[in-house]
């Protein structure tokens, strides 16, 4: 037990700062106009998702294009737990994580027999299978296109055993009947899990297990020649990251008890990849930053419409203003994905390490000019993109 | 038996589309070594070439007929497309056959798009890891489809097929079976024939022209071809253009079967990648064979008799086959040893 909590000073510092940043979100997000609960819940949930994905992709280099399937499984499990047993989020999350873990075990066991692009295609195939089945044959479980929802006549055996009565409206998920899981309490509930998740990944990164995974990323063949069977390690990483995704899916259901199949579509998996890459693959904080940035800008950009733009550019002469609005309207509002795609292409092309590498480069630029404050390990030049 | 035969036919046109896209994917991969996730977007762009041409051809001039009035008392409006007014019957013929005519538009457009894409973006990713190639082309695919969405909207835009081939062919009667049992739409047959012709043309081009020979040599050993003094990069760029043209033409001809919308490409891309992997990464015949095979399997699986045994099989059959193939025969049906196995 002691060993688990023995962290280097740098790790402790990172962890404390990270927790503070997450918990103080309602305050420091105010000036950005993002301090409302719905968005902050998303920040926390997608942060968890990206962290978990990073355990697989960042450490082992296995690019899964089917991670959304675990998200979906988590959501469905959580909603079913609400329906059958209790509106308490704890059992729902536990079951969601377990189910996603089992799912990941099955899919990972098969997919990890292959590597490289074949692995990506296999995970993609499994995710598409789950998505198609959720839409068609499994409709009794998933409620097809409508999505799985709570209903008034759900049994909720545990809740009714404790004598909670329905007041004619749909119940809200609540922690032992004390706090409702929406608004700010809902955010803090998710935030606690984000912090726990961050702690776990931090430990994985620092552990011999994490070292092993990184060795697999850099040269799996050599690992095999040295006599290591790498598959149990990659499978463990796969299951862990699937469980993170299941947790995120469960939390989505906790904050909004609805589960739909579109959560499992492969474009959703693509979004997870985007977040991780944008922030910085293989770094601790990068994926979370990427998730926050994408969710933040999605929220900001989507709210821009033509009239907002007209107001924004009202100072320009008439003809120019029309032209500018015409151009910019392509990139905001409905067209926000265009901006996302462009940013993503630029990042992959010029900054394969994501935002974190960008920060490091800027940092080293200043350090070179201004003195010798750079830590030795930060001075190592980032791998230059090949032509 | 008749039902099986009918489903078999049904699979041919879909298989043709898969095969055409997978052929292009494999060409790009075999020559440039790049995994192109934006290839589906090229298919989609081709489909929108057809949409654009039809829009242009059906630009109408409005004249009012002073002698007749409508039920609302306003003068009757006569709308005639400009091309009809200018060229008479030939104009009407062009409007009717707008989809096949679009191929003439699609070839230069797709060539330009393909070459620009290769020189502008793909070129810089030859030696980067496959994961980064996938990611950057995935980003490009998003950008392309969002641009299309901006200009054409999010709804599918149906394209009529030429009225001359709008009906159905009684294939059963032609093969000496009972008439009116196996009836099949003409356009689907045309699509199948079209895909066979295009695939044949690509293979002939690679097999029987000097240019094709050099490209094949480059696929086998790029370095040596370079040492002989041939600028192989230029030819590979041309092959990327060719792959774009093939995908674009496949898209143009598919529009009457499936109204195109902006995410058409993504839907086909996933399936085509599965097709490529099943056929064997880097093998052109494998891609074509797997395309038709999976198309036929998919339509056979959607027979009610089979669905009664295994519910939902039609939804997952392609992926299921891919999983099984990848596990028991990792190289795919006709794949060469050592392609992307590191």
TrEMBL record, chain A:
Highest taxon listed in the record's lineage: Bacteria
Localization per record: Cell membrane
Keyword Membrane recorded: yes
Pfam families assigned to the protein according to its UniProt record, in alphabetical order: BPD_transp_2
Membrane-topology descriptor: Multi-pass membrane protein
Entries under CDD domains matching the protein: TM_PBP1_LivM_like
InterPro entries (alphabetical): ABC_transp_permease, LivM-like
The entry's keywords: Cell membrane, Membrane, Transmembrane, Transmembrane helix
Keyword Glycoprotein: no
Main subcellular location of this protein, as a coarse class: membrane
TM stretches of this protein: 12-31, 43-63, 68-86, 92-110, 117-138, 186-213, 233-252, 272-293, 336-355
PANTHER family: ABC TRANSPORTER ATP-BINDING PROTEIN, HIGH-AFFINITY BRANCHED-CHAIN AMINO ACID TRANSPORT SYSTEM PERMEASE
Protein's recorded name: Branched-chain amino acid ABC transporter permease
Organism: Maritalea porphyrae
Taxon lineage: Bacteria, Pseudomonadati, Pseudomonadota, Alphaproteobacteria, Hyphomicrobiales
UniProtKB/TrEMBL annotation, chain B:
The species this protein was found in: Maritalea porphyrae
CDD domains reported in the protein's UniProt record: TM_PBP1_LivH_like
PANTHER family per record: ABC TRANSPORTER ATP-BINDING PROTEIN (PTHR11795:SF442), BRANCHED-CHAIN AMINO ACID TRANSPORT SYSTEM PERMEASE PROTEIN LIVH (PTHR11795)
UniProt topology in membrane: Multi-pass membrane protein
Coiled-coil positions: none
Main location: membrane
Subcellular location: Cell membrane
Superkingdom of source: Bacteria
Keywords assigned: Amino-acid transport, Cell membrane, Membrane, Transmembrane, Transmembrane helix, Transport
Cross-referenced Pfam families: BPD_transp_2
Upper taxonomic lineage: Bacteria, Pseudomonadati, Pseudomonadota, Alphaproteobacteria, Hyphomicrobiales
Family label: Belongs to the binding-protein-dependent transport system permease family. LivHM subfamily.
Name of this protein: Branched-chain amino acid ABC transporter permease
Keyword Cell membrane carried by entry: yes
InterPro entries named among the record's database cross-references: ABC_transp_permease, BCAA_transport_permease
Residues spanning the membrane: 15-35, 42-63, 101-122, 134-152, 189-215, 236-257, 269-296, 308-328
Keyword Iron part of the UniProt annotation: no
């Amino acid at each position: 037990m002691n060993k688990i909590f023995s962290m280097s000073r740098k790790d402790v510092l990172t962890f404390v700062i990270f927790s503070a940043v997450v918990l103080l979100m309602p305050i420091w997000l105010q000036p950005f106009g993002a301090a409302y609960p719905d968005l902050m819940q998303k920040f926390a949930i997608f942060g968890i998702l990206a962290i978990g994905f990073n355990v697989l992709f960042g450490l082992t280099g296995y690019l899964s294009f089917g991670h959304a399937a675990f998200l979906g499984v988590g959501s469905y499990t959580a909603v079913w737990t609400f329906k059958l047993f209790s509106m308490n989020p704890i059992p729902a999350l536990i079951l969601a994580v377990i189910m996603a873990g089992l799912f990941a075990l099955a899919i990972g066991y098969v997919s990890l027999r292959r590597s490289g692009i074949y692995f990506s295609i296999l995970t993609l195939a499994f995710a598409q299978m789950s998505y198609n089945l959720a839409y068609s044959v499994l409709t009794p479980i998933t409620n097809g296109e409508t999505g799985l929802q709570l209903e008034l006549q759900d049994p909720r055996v545990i809740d009714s055993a404790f004598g909670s009565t329905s007041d004619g409206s749909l119940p809200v998920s609540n922690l032992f009947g004390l706090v409702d899981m929406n608004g700010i309490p809902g955010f803090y509930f998710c935030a606690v899990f984000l912090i726990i998740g961050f702690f776990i990944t931090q430990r994985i990164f620092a552990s011999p297990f994490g070292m092993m995974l990184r060795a697999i990323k850099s040269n799996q063949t050599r690992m095999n020649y040295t006599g290591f069977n790498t598959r149990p390690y990659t499978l463990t990483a796969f299951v862990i990251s699937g469980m993170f995704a299941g947790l995120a899916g469960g939390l989505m259901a906790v904050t909004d008890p609805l589960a739909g199949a579109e959560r499992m579509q492969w474009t959703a998996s693509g979004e997870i990849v985007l977040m991780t890459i944008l922030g910085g693959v293989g770094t601790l904080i990068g994926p979370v930053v990427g998730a926050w940035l994408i969710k933040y800008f999605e929220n900001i950009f989507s709210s821009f419409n033509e009239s907002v733009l007209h107001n924004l550019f009202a100072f320009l002469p008439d003809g120019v203003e029309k032209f500018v609005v015409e151009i910019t309207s392509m990139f905001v509002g409905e067209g926000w994905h265009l901006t996302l795609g462009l940013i993503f292409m630029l990042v992959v092309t010029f900054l394969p390490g994501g935002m974190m590498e960008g920060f490091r480069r800027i940092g080293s630029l200043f350090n070179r000019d201004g003195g010798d404050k750079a830590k030795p390990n930060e001075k190592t030049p980032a791998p230059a993109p090949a032509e | 038996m008749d039902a099986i035969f009918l489903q078999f036919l049904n699979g041919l046109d879909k298989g043709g589309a898969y095969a055409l896209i997978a052929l292009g994917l494999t060409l790009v991969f075999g020559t440039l070594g790049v995994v192109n996730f934006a290839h589906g977007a090229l298919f989609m762009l081709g489909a929108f070439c057809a949409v654009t041409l039809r829009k242009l051809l059906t630009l109408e001039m409005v004249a009012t007929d002073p002698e007749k009035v409508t039920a609302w008392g306003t003068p009757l409006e006569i709308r005639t497309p400009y091309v009809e007014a200018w060229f008479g019957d030939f104009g009407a013929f062009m409007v009717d056959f707008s989809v096949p005519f679009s191929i003439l538009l699609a070839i230069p457009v797709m060539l330009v798009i393909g070459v620009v894409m290769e020189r502008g973006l793909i070129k810089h990713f030859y030696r980067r890891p496959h994961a980064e190639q996938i990611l950057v082309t995935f980003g490009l695919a998003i950008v392309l489809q969002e641009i299309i969405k901006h200009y054409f909207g999010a709804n599918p835009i149906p394209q009529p097929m030429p009225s001359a081939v709008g009906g159905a062919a009684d294939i059963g009667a032609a093969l000496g079976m009972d008439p009116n049992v196996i009836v099949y739409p003409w356009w689907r047959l045309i699509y199948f024939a079209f895909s066979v012709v295009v695939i044949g043309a690509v293979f002939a081009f690679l097999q029987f022209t000097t240019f094709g020979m050099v490209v094949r040599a480059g696929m086998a050993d790029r370095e040596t071809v370079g040492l002989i003094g041939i600028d192989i990069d230029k030819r590979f760029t041309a092959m990327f253009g060719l792959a774009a043209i093939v995908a674009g033409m496949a898209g143009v001809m598919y529009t009457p079967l499936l109204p195109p919308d902006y995410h058409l490409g993504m839907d086909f891309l996933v399936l085509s990648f599965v097709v490529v992997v099943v056929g064997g990464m880097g093998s052109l015949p494998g891609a074509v064979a797997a395309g038709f095979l999976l198309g036929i399997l998919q339509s056979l699986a959607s027979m009610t008799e089979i669905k009664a045994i295994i519910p939902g099989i039609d939804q997952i059959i392609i992926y299921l086959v891919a999983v099984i193939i990848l596990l028991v025969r990792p190289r795919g049906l006709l794949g060469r040893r050592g392609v992307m196995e590191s």
